[in-house]
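User: Hey, quick favor. My workstation is busy. Could you predict this chain's structure for me?
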Amino acid sequence: MVNASASPAVTTNKKTLWKVIGASSLGTLIEWYDFYIFGSLAIVISTKFFPPDNPTAAFLSTLATFAAGFVVRPFGALFFGRLGDIIGRKYTFMVTLLLMGLATCAIGLVPGYETIGFAAPIIVLVLRLLQGLALGGEYGGAATYVAEHSEPHKRGFRTSWIQTTATFGLFISLAVIMLTKSSMSAEAFDDWGWRVPFLISSVMVVVSYFIRRNMDESPLFKKAKNEGKTSTNPLRESFGKKYNFKFVLLALFGATMGQGVIWYTGQFYALSFLQSVCKVDFDQTNFIIGCALLAGTGFFVFFGWLSDKIGRKPIMLAGMLLAVLTYRPIYDRMYRLTDVEAKQELMEQRRTVGQTLVKVYNDGSTATVVSQGDAVTQTVKVGQRAFFFLALLVFIQVLYVTMVYGPIAAFLVEMFPVHIRYTSMSLPYHIGNGIFGGLLPAVATYLVTKAQAANMAQQASGALPYDKPYLEGLWYPIIIASVSFIIGLLYIKNKNQDVQ
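Assistant: No problem, here it is.
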C-alpha cells in the first residue's frame, strides 16, 4: 500500500462524527434506492418501455439497460472524483445527489412504448446513464468524507455504516414497491402505479440535500487545501504515475472485482434467478429477498468493526472463497425448492378459472398457469417451509456480501493519499462494481437462457449439453471471484494504515 507520513489526528468530536455518518449515509442510501428501483422493477419495466411481442428479449433488454448504468459509473468516478479532489468532497456529492434524483424522477414520467415507440427505451437508457454517472461520483465522496472524519483505529467500523446503505437502499426499494402494489389493484399498479416508487425519490432527495448542505468539509481536505497541497491534476497523478497506478490496479483486480460480483450475485442475481428462472411470484420473491437483507445488513458493521481488529484482507478473501465454493450448491437447492415438477400435485385441489389453471402441491406450493393463445406462463408460490429455506439461502449469500463489502471503503481509503484519494479510490471501486458486478445479472441470465435453449434443442436425441442449465450463469461470478481471490492473496498486504 501507499506509504506516507503520518497525518494529523482527527479532532472531530463523537457527536459531530455521528452527524457526518448519518448525513452521508442517508444521502448515499437515497442514491442507492434510486439506482435499485430500476432493477427491482425490471420485470414490470420490460413490458412498458420495450416491444411486447417477445417477453424474453424485452426482459434481457431491460437488464442490459440496467447494466448500462453500471458501465458508465467509472466515467462518473473520473469526472466527479476529479472535482472532489480539487473543489472538495461536500459540494461534489451534493451535485451527484441532485443529478440522481432528477434522473430517477424523470424515469417515472417517461411515456411507455405504446405511446412514443422506440423513443421510450432510448430516453430511459439516457436517464439510466445519468444515474450511473451520479452514482459513480457519490460513493467515493461519501466514503472518503466519513473516513477523513474518523479515528484511524475505528475507520473500518465508521465507514461500514456507509456500506449498509447499498443493502438498505435495495430493501427500501422493495418495501416501497410492495407497499405501493398492496395499496391499489393489480391493474392500477400495472397501468401507472409502478411509476410511484420513482416519483417518491424526489421528496427524499430534497430532504437529504438540505441536510447535506449544512455539513462541513472534511478536516483533512481543508487542511490540505489551506496548505496548498491539493492536486491540480488528480487524474494525471492517480493514473499517470506508475507507483500510484500500480495500487489502482491492485485495488481493482485484488479486491473490488471479486467484491463486485459477490455483491450483485447475492442481491440482484438472487432476485433475478427466483423471478426469471424459478418463476416465483413477484411479491413473494421480494419478501424472500427483503427478509434476507434485513437479517444480514447488521453484519456490514460487524465485519467493518472486525477489520479494525484483524485487518481488511482476511475477511474480504474469506468471503470470496466461501462464495466460490458454495454458489452452485446454494443455487441448485434454490431451484429444487421451487421446482413444482418434482413435487406431488394434489389433483383434487386443481381448479380452472377461464384461461387460468391453478395447481396445488403437497408442500403448500401453488402454480398458476395462464394461457393466452400460444403463450403459456407459469408463476409459482412456494409453501412456508420452502419460503424459509429460500430466505436462509439468500441470507447466506448476503453474509458473503457483508464480508467482502463491509471493510472495502476503509481498505480503499487507506491505499491512497489525501490529495488524490477521491479519484484514485473511486475508479477501481466503480469498475469492479459497475462493470464486473453490474453486468452480472444480464450476463448470467443470458448464459442460463442460452443453456436452456440448447437443452431444448437436444431433447429429441437425449444428448443434453448441460447437466444443470439453470446453474450456468454462476460461472461468471465464480471465475471472477476466483481470480480476484488469488491476486488478493498473493499481493495485498494485511495492514491497516493511518490516514495519509
